Amino acid sequence: MTELEALRSELMAAVGKAADLDALERVRVSALGKKSRITEMMKGLGAMDADARRTAGQALNALKTEVADAIETRKRSFSDAELDRRLMQERVDVTLPARPERQGRVHPISQTMDEIVAILGEMGLAVAEGPDIEDDWHNFTALNIPPDHPARQEHDTFYLPGAGGDERLVLRTHTSPVQIRTMVATKPPIRIIVPGRTYRCDYDATHSPMFHQVEGLVVDETTHMGHLKGCLIDFCRAFFDMDDLPVRFRPSYFPFTEPSAEVDIGCTRKGGEFRIGHGDDWLEILGCGMVNPKVLENCGIDSARYQGFAFGLGVERMAMLKYGIPDLRTFFESDLRWLRHYGFSALKVPTMVGGL
Ligand code: DAH
Fold it and tell me: Does residue 28 sit in the same domain as residue 126?
C-alpha cells in the first residue's frame, strides 16, 4: 500500500468514526487544515521533478476532495438525525384540548350561515358562489330591474368608477345576481343556495354597509308554489328548532319574482319581552316568490317549459333573532369579549343529523 492509500483509509475511517459535529470538525482540521499530513505532503511537491509532481499533485487533490465530500455527507446525516430527533421531541399532540385562555371562537355570522347551509343542503340544494363585484346587468337588469326602476333607489348601491350601462361595476347589493350567473351557465334542473357578502350604502343599528345574505333557487319542469312553501316552512322550523313554529306567506312585490311573498314567523312581545313562537304577532324574516318568467328568459331558459322558486334572507337578522343579539353593528366591531360571549366552539359543527 502506498503512503497515500494508507493515509486515505486512515482519514476515511476517522470521518466514519466521528460521533458528532464537534468530533467531525476535529477530523476536518487535522485532515485538511494547515498542519495536516495532506498539507505537509503538498509542501513536498516542490522538491519533485515535473512528471512526478503532476501525478502526486493530482492524487493529493483527489484525496482532499474525497475527504471533504465524506465530511460533508457525514455532517448532513448528523443534521438529518438532529432534525428527526427534534421532530420526535417537539411533536404536537393535536388531540390535547386547547388552553381555555387561547380558545378561538366561531363568529355568529359564520355559525348561522353554516346552519342555514346545513339545513338547505340536507334538502338537496348545493352551494353556489359569485363575485362580490358585479356588473349592472347581473345585479339589476337581468333580474328585471331596468334602469328607471324604483327598486334601484332602494338598494343604495355602491357604484365603482367607470362608464354606465349594463357593464357598470357595482358591489352586489344582494346575492340574487348569482341566480342569473347559475341560470346562464347551467341547464335546469337547478337547486342552489348562495351564501355570501352583500353591500349597501347604509349604516345604523339595523343596517351595515357590508352584510350577508343567503339566496335560494330551484328551477325544474314541475316546480310550483307548493314546493316553495314546503321548503321554507321546513327551513324556518328547523332553523329556529321549533316543530310548530307558525309560518305565514304574505303577498309582496319583487321585480324578479311573480307572484312574490314575504315570510313571517310567529312571535310575541308581551310584557316587553320578545319571543319567537306562538303569539299574537308576526315578524318578517325573508323574501321569496316564483321566478319571474322574464328572468328565466333573460337567462336563456324556456319559461314555457321551466318554472322556479327563489328566496333571499338576511343572515345578520336571522342570527340576531336566533341568538338574541340586540345590535347589528356589534357583529363587525371585532370586540373579543363580545366574540367570547356570542361566539361558538369550533367543534360545534352544525349538522341535521346531530341536531343543531
Ligand atoms: N334580493 C332581495 C333583497 O335583497 C331578497 C329576495 C327576495 C331574494 C325575493 C329572492 C326573492 O330570491 O325571491 O332584498
Answer: no
Q: How far is CA 344 from CA 106, 108, 110, 139, 235, in A?
A: 5, 7, 9, 33, 21
pTM of the model: 0.73
For the chain, how many structural domains are there in total?
2
CATH number, position 157? 3.30.930.10
Q: Ligand 1: which residue has its CA nearest to atom 4?
A: 174
Pocket-testing residue among 125, 206, 215, 284, ligand 1, by greatest number of atoms within 8 A of Cβ? 215
309 CB under 6 A from ligand 1? Answer: no
Q: Is the pLDDT of residue 295 over 50?
A: yes
For the segment 223-247, what is each residue's pLDDT rounded down to a tens digit?
999 999 999 999 999 999 999 999 9
Grid coordinates in use for 13? 475511517
- pLDDT tens, residue by residue, 26-66: 999 988 888 888 888 888 888 888 888 898 889 899 999 99
Whether 212 is covered by a domain: the verdict is yes
**The residue to which cell 468514526 is assigned:** 17
- Does any ligand 1 atom lie closer than 6 A to the CB of residue 311? yes
Instruction: Tell me if 101 is assigned to some domain.
Output: no
Integer-rounded Cα radius of gyration of the chain: 37
The answer to whether 195 touches 315, Cβ cutoff 8 Å, is: yes
Residue 355 located in a structural domain = no
Residues of the domain holding 321:
108-342
Does ligand 1 lie within 6 Å of residue 287's CB atom? yes
pLDDT, tens digit, 9 for 90 and up, residues 160-214: 998 888 899 999 999 999 999 999 999 999 999 999 999 999 988 888 999 999 9
Q: Which of 155, 256, 258 to mutate to test the pocket of ligand 1 (most atoms within 8 A of CB)?
A: 256
* Closest to 176 (Cα-Cα) out of 77, 248, 297, 257: 257
In this structure, the answer to whether residues 294 and 157 fall within a common structural domain is: yes
Q: For ligand 1, is residue 292 a contact (CB within 6 Å)?
A: no
One domain, residues 267 and 304:
yes
